[in-house]
């Protein structure tokens, strides 16, 4: 190889080496070439450009959500919960929560609901696990509030003695969304005890600036439901259904009585028992 060719190769090698990375390279000296600084700046600029690149979703994936404003927003499947409409839209980290007295342990209660709804084609029996008397509105509770709120509720409710409530008549209620109408049992005995529970629950909710219960609550337990468009028919059937209620209560007097030994608090899929003072 002649000398001019060797010098050319050496020149190319030196030029490429100036822009290379070396983990063993020491701090720059005062005599470093300006070209090396320029190369380092170019590398930094390229890296910043790479960081800013946004990965786009494939068109096939976006096509699956073309009818939705936000492809990643929660889409509620009403078929999973009897077509119920949420009181408020799903929010990440926020749980629908409420306090209540449970009615799912009542003797003969499932038979009573079936007897009440018999031959009323538009009326659908409420699931026994969903039967309850509300002590609060359904509120939006942040996940990190759940445990401290449960502790507060347990503390203020524990000194209250267990009590009894009795249902005495039927009434019709429609939800706030005007989508469902409910046939409900109204509480006739134990109202003052329930009001005391509401005061305690409201006091705890106030600490989190959450909505309080109704000023003049009508305590009731829904036992069946229908579409809101059937409300007029249900109102017309109310007298006949009341007769059925009285017939059943004569045969099973204890079926319309609940011994309240605990208040319950549900937050999303979490269920907390808040025991009352046992006598």
Number of helices: 7
Q: So what's the CATH class of the domain at 87-275?
A: Alpha Beta
CATH superfamily of the domain at 87-275: Cyclic phosphodiesterase
Distance between the termini: 108 Å
Q: Identify the overall geometry.
A: globular
Classify the fold: give the CATH topology of the domain at 87-275: Cyclic Phosphodiesterase, Chain: A
The whole-number mean of residue pLDDT values reads: 82
Gist of the model:
The protein is α+β, with helices and mostly antiparallel strands and about 280 residues long. Helices cover about 35% and strands about 25% of the residues.
Write the layout of secondary structure elements.
Elements: H1 3-18, H2 34-52, H3 59-63, E1 94-102, H4 109-117, E2 124-125, E3 132-134, E4 139-142, H5 146-157, E5 163-174, E6 180-189, H6 191-206, E7 220-227, H7 231-251, E8 257-260, E9 262-267, E10 270-275
Antiparallel strand pairs: 1-3, 1-4, 1-9, 2-7, 5-6, 5-8, 6-7, 9-10
Helix pairs in contact: 4-7, 5-6
GO biological process, one term: U6 snRNA 3'-end processing
GO molecular function, one term: poly(U)-specific exoribonuclease activity, producing 3' uridine cyclic phosphate ends
Biased composition (Polar residues): 1-15
Descriptive terms for the model:
279 residues, alpha+beta, Cyclic Phosphodiesterase, Chain: A, 5-stranded antiparallel sheet, 23% strand, nuclease, EC 3.1.4.-
Give a written overview of the molecule.
With 279 residues, this protein is an alpha+beta fold. It has a domain of 189 residues: Cyclic Phosphodiesterase, Chain: A, CATH 3.90.1140.10. Helix content is 35%, strand content 23%. The protein has seven helices and ten strands. The strands form two sheets. Strands 1, 3, 4, 9 and 10 form a five-stranded antiparallel β-sheet that branches. Strands 2-7-6-5-8 form a five-stranded antiparallel β-sheet, sandwiched between helices. Strand 5 and strand 6 form a beta hairpin. Helix 4 crosses helix 7 and helix 5 runs antiparallel to helix 6. The longest helix has 21 residues. The chain is globular and about 90 Å long. About 9% of the residues have low confidence. It comes from Amblyomma aureolatum.
């Amino acid at each position: 190889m002649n000398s001019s060719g060797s010098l050319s190769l050496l020149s190319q090698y030196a030029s490429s080496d100036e822009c290379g990375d070396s983990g063993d390279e020491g701090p720059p000296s005062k005599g470093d070439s300006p070209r090396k600084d320029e190369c380092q700046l170019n590398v930094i600029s390229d890296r910043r450009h790479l960081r800013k690149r946004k990965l786009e979703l494939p068109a096939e994936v976006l096509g699956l959500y073309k009818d939705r404003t936000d492809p990643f927003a929660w889409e509620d499947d009403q078929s999973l919960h009897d077509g119920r409409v949420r009181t408020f839209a799903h929010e990440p980290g926020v749980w629908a929560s409420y306090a209540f007295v449970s009615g799912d342990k009542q003797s003969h209660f499932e038979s009573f609901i079936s007897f009440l709804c018999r031959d009323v084609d538009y009326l659908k029996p409420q699931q026994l696990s969903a039967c309850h008397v509300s002590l609060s509105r359904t509120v939006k509770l942040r996940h990190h509030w759940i445990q401290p709120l449960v502790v507060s509720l347990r503390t203020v409710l524990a000194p209250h003695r267990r009590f009894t409530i009795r249902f005495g008549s039927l009434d019709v209620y429609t939800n706030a969304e005007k989508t469902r109408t409910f046939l409900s049992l109204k509480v006739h005995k134990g109202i003052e005890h329930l009001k005391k529970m509401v005061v305690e629950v409201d006091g705890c909710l106030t600490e989190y600036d959450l909505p309080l219960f109704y000023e003049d609550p009508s305590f009731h337990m829904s036992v069946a439901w229908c579409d809101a468009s059937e409300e007029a028919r249900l109102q017309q059937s109310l007298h006949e259904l009341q007769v059925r209620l009285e017939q059943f209560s004569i045969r099973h007097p204890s079926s319309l009585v609940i011994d309240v030994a605990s208040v319950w608090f549900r937050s999303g899929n979490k269920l907390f028992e808040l025991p009352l003072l046992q006598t």
